[in-house]
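Task card 7
Instruction: Convert sequence to structure tokens.
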Amino acid sequence: MSIDIPWLPPLLDIRVSHISKIESYLECIFIREFVNKDLCYLDFPVIINKPGDPNYANKLFKHLITRDNYQYEGRGLDIERAKRLLWCPAVIANSNDPNILNFDYQEHNGIIRTYLYLKPYTLDYLAILQKNEKSHEAIIISAYYIDVEYKRRSYLEKSKKAINKPRPLN
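Output:
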């Protein structure tokens, strides 16, 4: 895959043959890039620990590298998500880049979430944040590689119903 976005890190080199060491390797990257760095979405500092949930950072880490595995009734390592772990902070930090479809959408439960969709149909990476206007902070809800068409269509439909009108992509 040729990536022509200078700020986007390369995919992590993750091989199935190293499966036993992958999680600790990824956890070190998560701590270095998410926990120990100051990350901002626009002028909102991004927090990793959710108030009232001291285990949120660990849950977020697991969520960023795993996906639902209905065969085993739980979540399992998703190599494609794991390879893109470094993309999440890069997409957040560069959310105004013309390669990112950036929009706010009000969910059915009334919560407004921010969607940062990197190059639909080519790179297909999505980061989802939730801003807290009172504390002027944002928290990462999820981020992942989109590899199924119905999900792609669903997020593009959400962008059409956005609270703010997203600017056209490059």
